[in-house]
Write a structure and sequence with these properties.
Helix content is 45%, strand content 9%. It has 207 residues and is mainly alpha-helical. The chain has a domain of 126 residues: Winged helix-like DNA-binding domain superfamily/Winged helix DNA-binding domain (Arc Repressor Mutant, subunit A, Orthogonal Bundle). Helix 2 packs across helix 4, helix 2 crosses helix 5 and helix 3 packs across helix 4. About 2% of the residues have low confidence.
């Protein structure tokens, strides 16, 4: 499922992105559960959930009885979300960057908490991994590497056991900043093309 411009703008908001990625496509969750996990008020999470539903990013999946109250449970509207393929507008591209920044902040918080928790039980290390490598590739080889990474990501998605501990994993491949600058110089482009805009008009965010 591809994000349209409205959707990518919605998840460009740091708080809304955090709420959106707290849900997933498999396990229905309530507003209360997500609020507890993110340490935010149920009212704040409900506000963002409503925005995400209106944008077609979350859907109601089922209900659950909790004491005298019925909780609605939500999942992602698609099994996975992707940004639209080129060509895309500059505005769409900048929203992608904003959303990616939000995801990176969430990943940093997740890993920081998990590493601290690992200090109480070294067996939890089996849930943690990080590797970073650099290789030089031709355009043709780069396409092959990218395809292998995406295929591995899909293969791992099939390992979901349903009743195990949920973990996040991500595929990341990018030009180093130095390479981007070299390409700009070689093609006679202004280096300012690599700079973020001074200001972006994001949808209203409510923390």
């Amino acid at each position: 499922m591809y994000f349209d411009y409205e959707q990518v703008s919605i998840v460009a908001s740091a708080t809304r992105s955090e709420v959106f990625w707290a849900f997933n496509a498999v396990d229905p969750l309530s507003v209360r559960e997500v609020a507890e996990g993110l340490k935010k008020s149920p009212q704040t999470v409900r506000h963002h959930v409503n925005e995400l539903i209106d944008a077609g990013l979350l859907i109601a999946a089922s209900t659950r009885q909790r004491r005298a109250r019925t909780e609605e449970l939500y999942v992602h509207a698609g099994m996975e979300f992707r940004t639209a393929p080129p060509p895309i507008t500059r505005e769409y591209r900048e929203m992608i960057n904003k959303g990616f920044d939000s995801i990176l902040r969430q990943m940093a918080r997740e890993r920081s908490a998990a590493i601290r928790l690992e200090g109480t039980d070294s067996d939890l290390n089996r849930y943690l991994a990080y590797r970073r490598h650099t290789i030089r590739v031709s355009p043709e080889q780069a396409a092959k590497v990218k395809q292998k990474l995406l295929e591995l990501s899909e293969e791992l998605r099939q390992c979901d056991e349903g009743d195990g501990v949920r973990v996040h994993y991500a595929v990341y491949m990018s030009l180093p900043l130095g390479e981007s600058r070299s390409i700009v110089d070689e093609r006679g482009l202004p280096r300012s093309i690599l700079d973020p805009p001074v200001e972006l008009n994001l949808p209203d965010d409510k923390d």
